[in-house]
Amino acid sequence: MRFLHTADWQLGMTRHFLAGDAQPRYSAARRDAVAGLGRLADEVGAEFVVVAGDVFEHNQLSPQVVGQSLEAMRAIGIPVYLLPGNHDPLDASSVYTSALFLAERPENVVVLDRPGVHQVRPGVEIVAVPWRSKVPTTDMVTEVLEGLSPAPATRVLVAHGGVDVLDPDRAKPSLIRLAGVDAALARGAIHYVALGDKHSLTEVGGSGRMWYPGSPEVTNYDDVESNPGHVLIVDIDEGDSRRPVSVVPRRVGNWRFVTLRGQVDTSRDIADLDMNLDLMTEKDRTVVRLALTGSMTVTDRAALDACLDRYSRLFAWLGLWERHTDLTVVPADGEFNDLGIGGFAASAVEELVATAREGDSASAADAQAALGLLLRLTDRGAA
What we know:
The protein is of the alpha/beta class.
């Protein structure tokens, strides 16, 4: 038996920093990753798809998002089993019980709307653990697994949430207790554990049977999501009583959210940054967050701003990570002597230079910005 394990589609997700056509392109990429599962399933011969929670970003979605999402699922062409997660729980406002979803749900889409065993076909069962609220107060997985006896069928547990061994707050009541899952695997009550919640590809425990696939398209920066953009191809040998499992990740994501850190003190540092940004491919599908530190002249800061302005037009988004950026601008001696101005204008520049050297005050920042603009207008701040 072969199937695809995916999770955390979060269809309808928006990223506040994406502007212009970047957000619609990002949304389309998320839907395309879903629809593309049909091609992957056909290529590898998968029977069905399990989506282990957070199919949608939340329950209050526009009709267009719901309709387009269902069309993407229809395109998969084989049975798709959706598990409600913490983003889209089966509460009173659930998208899964909305009139639009019920009217337009394709025949190949099945909502795992009750805890317990669901038959996929004779000999194959899903053990589902759907969320009914955003803040459960118990380990719902343990509750479902307790008393679940081995059966002749091959069983796949489909669940959502954090696992205690991976969470720093192990006392959290909703965490999935690994010991209980391992016990169910050991007694043959279940044979594979399809998890959702972590957006990076992650194996849990040492059995080789418990995985997070991560989100099929990136949702956060690389310091948060180290390995997103995958779907898992899962094989379970039904002919062997031990039900051996093979898991193969397949990369399907096309976007990147990258964090670049660097020390920027001189024009050479700016040139190196420019080269690194220039060498990055697929800029229109790449988001870049810069964490820069350093002390520079007004001329170099103007050159840095010109560099960032240029690449912000090429990347899906590029900007400074303000909380981790610390750039000090100090006018160099004689930096503004050759502007070819005199009289009142020269006196104004001297006053701006003096203010810019005052430190971290708001007036100093304004003076630095004004001097930088002056240099750029005279083409001395060109990247």
